[in-house]
Amino acid sequence: xxxxxxxxxxxxxxxxxxxxLLLLPSPGAVPVAQATPAAADLAIRFExxxxxxxxxxxxxxxxxxxxxxxxxxxxxxALGRNTTDMTALVGQLFGxxxxxxxxxxWSEHIIELFAYAGALAARDEAAKGDAVHELTExxxxxxxxxAGASQGRLSxxxxxxxxVQHVGHLTGQADAYAAGDYAxxxxxxxxxYQHTYDLGxxxxxxxxxxxxxxxxxxPLWRLRSQLxxxxxxxxxxxxxxxxxxxxxxxxxxASGDMINGNTRDLAAxxxxxxxxxxxxxxxxLWADHTDHLVxxxxxxxxxxxxxxxxxxxxxxxQRLGAFLAGAxxxxxxxxxxxxxxxxxxxxxxxxxxxxxxxxxxTAHDVAYETYQQxxxxxxxxxxxxxxxxxxxxxxxxxxxxxxxxxxxVSSRPGPALAQPTPAQPTPAQPGR
Amino acid sequence: xxxxxRVPALAALTLALLGxxxxxxxxxxxxxxxxxxxxxxxxxxxxxxxxxxxxxxxDRTYDAVAVPVRLRIPALHVDSNVERLGLQKDGxxxxxxxxDVAGWYEPGPRPGQPGPAVILGHVDSKTGPGIFIGLSAVRxxxxxxxxxSDGTTATFKITKVSRVPKVEFPTDLVYAPTLDPTLRLVTxxxxxxxxxxxxxxxxxxxxxxx
Lengths: 432, 210
Fold this sequence. Notes:
The complex is a heterodimer. Chain A is an all-alpha fold. Chain A contains 15 helices and no strands. Chain B is an alpha+beta fold. Chain B is globular, with a radius of gyration of 30 Å. At the A-B interface, helix 1, helix 4, helix 5, helix 9 and helix 10 of A face helix 1, helix 2, strand 6, helix 3 and strand 7 of B. Chain B: Keywords: Hydrolase.
């Protein structure tokens, strides 16, 4: 790592290194599961952690650009926790040797991203060039690591391209943020999250044994992963918006556009599952939920306004819980769902309060837990939604022929008769 | 930095910083350079507004994908209107009323929307070929276009074709919900059961959004 022109980097290095100390490979650093969870289960958690890494790294870079060193420290601690969790999963999924190689490579690319942000803040082109040079090295090293671990299922070129894109999203959003182009910065922020989350599927698909990789492509696992991506992103983006609301920063409007994009995506997902009318109803409730959370954050020290927002949120929790319970065909109860939403709201309010009081460590801790809670809720919902939809799917095959061309049809070259892949035995196939 | 020296270097650096700078006990040093940088950036791009941000209003609409009206597969000489299909009383999927017209399963996703859209076509009539007579021979990479009621077109590429016994139809793989915008084309195949008056198998072409 180069130091030229990086006085401010040196100043922050202790922060980074303290977070990274826990990540250095050491005997027993990677937890060994007592009861091995399914590889697919670990893999979708790996996806979620990768997505979380992207937003935490972006937040770290942005706070460095702002010169908000207290936030930098808390963001780095969260990023260190994320890397620790990811390293543990890499160990469980791909083995301890892979985890031991992954951890330092991953940590050092974070350090160079931080150096890049520092160079942007200092408008130091030489330091920026140094950081880019180092990042390029790590892109190659990380790409080669993933390609090597895949035992030929992922080419070095493809792996490097994926890492290059990840780094490009992060440096690009930092460039735009430093230039005050918040709309562009936030476009890249969302893009980076989605790409890095999906990178987890690419890596798991290449690094896992083929049977496990195939499981990840089954509909139920895809739905778990995809709903997890959308709902966990909601947590990230509403926190970004409430932070902007608390401090009245000029990226508020762009941040609002980000959460609106996520809300539209969620509504489109409900449309896919339950139709346009349900999507419209859901979006209205979800919009109310978001609006009142932002109102809570904007209320500042006005307790009356905060109480008004909390009362409104309580009503929405109940109505949204009832809507979701109906969507699951009562596989989940209104009470349980309302309670989960109440917990979600409480965590987000706590995050906003902690941020407003500059207790960034607590704000980041709560944000980390909120992300996990939404990912877990998404998984439960995906199973219940899947079961609800499965109950009304067509039964059996389609009668799409009358036999007039039977001789031709039966003798035509075409696909050999295949035994279909058995469906995952989950609650998603009741009554079928 | 060579991988062999990265970890020791980082470890040594960490220990030196933690020990030498007394990380746990001392406040982080404030440098003039940092202060200047912070002020410079804050004064330009990141200046806070004088007033609080306005109230936030979430979007309450989304871009719904329009329904399909036409199916085009040039490689199979398919160019057809698309009718809407639902379920029959026995829970099986309804089929197009004509053998030269394709049908879209309306309770499922619309083509191009997140999720698996399903379009059916007959392989034959009692006297001649149906619209999907060539589906079993379609090659991966073949282009499928679906025109929609708002004038837009969703373009897909066939990824694989499979033939399965109807009694073991893979409902999950064809219809089960995901948020991947995909398309499944379904017709009959295999041998014809004269007693039942139907083909024993279904041919399924899987396609991804191009």
